[in-house]
Write a structure and sequence with these properties.
Blueprint: H1 2-6, H2 9-32, H3 40-51, H4 57-68, H5 78-84, H6 87-96, H7 103-120, H8 123-137
Helix pairs in contact: 3-8, 6-7, 7-8
Length: about 150
């Protein structure tokens, strides 16, 4: 019945991936939105904690594997889309702290550290590196507000 509605197995899988991506964008996009009541480095710190939480791990694994596949995969152009779709909320946020033009740097650090975390599981090291980014954006930036001790790794 599912194949009747979607046509092929690949179309069914692509529909599932697109729906998961919508949920991923909604969740992480909310975390990355600039808030008028707080400095953006605080917002970024909370977003980092949410994006590296156990609840976010399935997205990291699924979309990491999809990114690693060739462009002939189920979703041609996914790597480009998975990079550029996060730029708008980050651009707005970094502009709010007088760091226009830093969105690509922030996104590259987030993506690189998430790949590192996926490969090593060393959350404490990734958190420390992300805090260095926050301090580079604002010297008074607090550490990301992790509820569990950052010495624990995933």
């Amino acid at each position: 019945m599912l194949l009747y509605h979607f046509g092929t197995r690949d179309q069914l899988l692509l529909a599932i991936l697109r729906r998961a991506r919508q949920r991923h964008l909604a969740s992480f996009g909310d975390h990355l939105k600039s808030r008028p009541d707080e400095p953006y480095v605080v917002t970024l710190g909370r977003a980092w904690v949410a994006m590296t939480s156990p609840d976010a791990a399935p997205y990291l694994r699924m979309f990491g594997q999809l990114r690693e596949q060739s462009e002939r995969s189920l979703w041609p152009g996914f790597r480009r889309l998975a990079t550029t779709d996060w730029l708008a909320p980050i651009e707005t946020g970094v502009a709010s702290i007088d760091r226009p033009g830093s969105a690509t740097l922030v996104l590259a650090v987030i993506r690189g550290l998430m790949m590192d975390l996926d490969a090593t599981g060393d959350l404490a090291r990734a958190d420390a590196a992300f805090h260095q980014l926050l301090r580079a954006l604002d010297s008074g930036a607090p550490a990301p507000p992790r509820d569990v001790p950052s010495a624990q790794s995933r």
